[in-house]
Every structure is written in structure tokens, then in C-alpha cells.
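Narrative progress, year one. The postdoctoral researcher (J.K.) led the effort to move from monomer predictions toward full complexes, under supervision of the PI. The following entry was the first complex the group processed end to end, covering 520 residues in total.
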Amino acid sequence: MIARFSALVALVALASGTTPREPHRPAGGTISGKVTFTGTPPKAKPIDMSKEPNCVTQHPTPVTTEDAVTGPGNSVRYVVVYIAAGDQGAAPATDTVRYDQKGCQYIPHVAAMQVHQPLTIYNDDPHSHNIHPLARVNAEWNKSQPKGAPPIRTAWDEPEFIALKCNVHPWMHGYFAVLSTPHFAVTDSSGAFSLSGLPPGKYTVTAWHERFGTQSLEVTIAGSETKPANFVLTARPY
Amino acid sequence: MRPHTGWVSFRSACGVVLLLARATPAPAQEAHVGNRTGHAKAGKPLYQRYCVGCHGQDGDGNGENAAWIDPKPRDFTTPVFKCRSTPTGTLPTDADLFNAVTRGFVTTNMPPWRPLTEQNRVDLVAFIKTFSKRWQTAKPGAPLTVPPEPVLTIQGILHGRELYQRMECWKCHGPAGHGDGPSAHDLTDNKDNPIRPYDFRSGTRFMCGETNQDLYRIFMTGLDGSPMPSFADQLKPADGWDLVHFLRTLQPLQTREAAIWREWVATHGSELKPIGPEGGGR
């Protein structure tokens, strides 16, 4: 089953090798912008990893919670921005999404992917993790991944924002944003995002944040132009 | 949408819905266990008599007793089940659900339902499956094969002990299996309710049965919804059996495993490194 799946992944990778999903000079239009907040976001709290000495030594300065990462100019990181409506039979995303467990953290905190897009989950730590996606629409599962175990290769069938936890290290939280569109991005540390390769048309662009909720904008793309879309989410301290 | 097309679309949508309603077969209304066929219609009154108090009218685990129950009653709408013969992330078989109703869960408020007839219990399984649409869109997983149990040896138990260390079972279940590992105290289930790891001192029975085969299945399939993950990708069948034999030594029982283990420990105990952050092995 795994062998068959890998073969399929290899085939898909070969087939798509000549047409990368997000080329450097994409044909069509681009929607780019920034996500910021108003209000009071929760403070990032330092994480006590003393239960796992390996992870304490991996972080000379303690890491902080990532459920609300804000930056200069009220920017918000880890916001998933995607085309919620208006896609016109876009080619599916086929490159493999890599997800890491390292230093008792999920890297990246939020990973966006399309339904059926290959997802590979690695344990880079010298100890065990259990990876437990709390799926509701998709099927929930929970697998142990000890030190040195091979990566878990999987994919999701239905669009869903899936919270992720490691029961052994309860501070570990992450999200898989599984989307029906191949046009998605996760904001960087400056809150910026860019969706490229969009054929002309009218689009609904949605921004989703795990604590600050969702917001949508309508954007019309006429040709190979870049249109702005800036989101202002309402932050709540709790 | 322009208004003048709205009505047309609405009408055609109604037509489609009507057609679908007629064409779609009835939802999973049946359960099959052995030669018996259970019917949801027959299971419904039984559910409302015996199950509704905890599992609720909507099958969501929010019955009127739920507030006083820990761990919480199963939510059938999800549908995620702990005790299965099938791999993690798949639906259980009808027989798995039947066994669960029959056996109850020794670690929870769910009693055994042997007082109900077998037919009653199969009917209940059929009814439970009407609470989630996934029973129509997905099939139960292929049951895990439990290979024949090998001969019990002290080498096997020692290897099982190494695995208990290496798979980090001790992080939740504790170095001696007392359910007091470093991660034990803040475990939560898939609804963020606190949950305890199994304490091997608690007796002869496990959550999902009492035989060595049941124990093998528990860590291979994982208990979905709980923090207990599946080790099926990590343990070969022989490893699994060695782990079973070691786990049996953690129970306060005169099991065959405990007997030969105690005898060995009496003479070689000093060779063992304690289980824990730097321990394990000999």
C-alpha cells in the first residue's frame, strides 16, 4: 500500500515535473497584500519544555507560543490566504508538502495544502512524537513516530482546517489547512502573502487565522496584473 | 446571482433534491455480526431506553448524565472509536462495535450490555451507525491480522522491555506502568478533556479486552480519539508479541509472564537499567 502510494507520488511528480505549480514568472494575475490586526492580540507566552530535556537544549532562548504571532505594523503571521471562490479548473497542486517536528515544535506552525496533495511528516528529534491530527470532516488518526522512524506519507480527502497536537508534548500545536483550491499562501513574518498565476476572473479571497477568524474580499483580475488585497482581522486577547 | 435566474435555479435545485432523495439508498441501517443482521429501526427504541441517558438524543455524547461522567460518553456523530480491530483513522467493523457494547469499558462508566440479547446488541450497532454520514461514504478498515502468539521466553520479555523504553511508552504509562510518566498529567483527548493513561496495576482487564490478542491490538491500532497512538508502522509482529509479554509483567497478577520474569529478576535484576530518560536495556 505504501509502496503503491510512493509509486503514485513519483508518477505524479514526474508528470508535473515540467510544469511547476507556482513558476517564477507566472502567467496570469497576482493578488498580493498584507494581513494586519486591530484590537489586542494575546501575548506570546514562553513554553516550558523541561519535561523534554532534548528540546530544552535545542532552544538556547525559550520559544514562545505561535497561535498569535504578530509583528511590526500590527502584521499577523500564519494567516492562510486562499481563493475561496472563482477558481476555474486550476491544475491541482502536486508538490509534496513537508511538515517537521523539530525541537518539540511544529515547523511550520501552519501548513497549507490542497486536498489530495502529498504531505510528508518528519520527526527530526532524538525522541518520540505522536502526531495526532484532530480532524472532524476527514478521518482523525494518531500515530507514534519514534526517533529515527521513517516519515509518514499521507494526504487529506476533504477541505478542513485540522488542528494538530502531540499528546506527549502538550504545548505542541499546529494546523493543516486543507483547501479545495491550489491557490493559497500562508503569511510570512511581515504578514505578507501573494497568490499568483490567476487567470482573469472574479475571485473571493479569504484569510483564515486560528484565533482571529476569517475575512473575505472580492478581487477581479483582468489580465497579468497585480491586485492588492489587504485584510484587517480583529484580535481578541483571549 | 441575478434575480430572474434565481427562481429557475431554485426550482431546478428542488428537482435535483427530490430526485436525489428518491435515488439515494437508505443510510446505513444495518449491521452484520456473524449470522445476525441488526436493524436500526429495532435498535432505536433500545437506544432510547438504555443509551440515551449518556450518549444523548443526538448521539453526540451529551446525554443528561454526561456532565458527571469522566471519560465522557462516546460521540457517535464524529465517528471516532477507541476499540477497533482496524487501523488508526478508519471506521471499526460491526463486530468491533458489537464487542464494545457487549464488553463495556472497564476504565469508564460504560457497563457491559450482556443482559441484552445478542440480537438487541446488533440492532443497537445498526442504530449507532445512523448518527454519522461517514458510514455511507467510507468502509471500515481491513482488520489487523494478529499473528499466532510465539512461545514465551525471557529474551522476548527483555526485548519487550527495551521496546517499552525505546517506543517511549513510559512517558505516559510510567517507568513501572503505573500511569505516572512525565506526560501523564496533562494528556487530553480529541475534545480537550483530560484523560489518564492506563495504570497496569488496575487489574486483569484492559479498556479493549483482556486477552493477549486484545493487548496486541490495542497498541497496534491505537485508541483513536485518545492520546494513545498506533504503533503499527513501528513494531513488527514479533516486536508486538515481545511487548505484550513484557506488559503482562507490569500487572499485579500471577501470569505466566510475571512468574518467569520475577524468577529472572531475582537472580539477574541488577543487570537491568531502570526505565526512564536515560534508561532501559541491560
